[in-house]
Fold this protein.
Amino acid sequence: MAELKRNMIELVKEVKEGELVTEKYLTPLFVPLEVTYEALDLMTELNEMGDDISKERKFREKAEIFIADKLYNGQFTKEELRKGLHGPESGDEIANQILFAARGFQTQATKKYLAKKR
């Protein structure tokens, strides 16, 4: 089998003397198709939500569980995900993680990180 795509997420573990202490996590080597189907369902829900802010929190909570438990196989908890994402950028990061699972999209940061690991 050809080299399989992986994704990365970087979470803040603590803020120490004005500096961020982070940890990077990679998706497992193999992401089952059933995880992709769940990501597609989340993408549909996100698109249908549109600008309805009242639905956003419930969506994010569902997405956090998906990312922590399904996509990253419990390498971190949904609580660690919540505490480790920068609030103003969290929506984009959550969407990017779902987009990876659904369509294989990797951010430039992920591509750069994986290239260094090789």
About this structure: The radius of gyration is 14 Å. The chain has a mean pLDDT of 94.
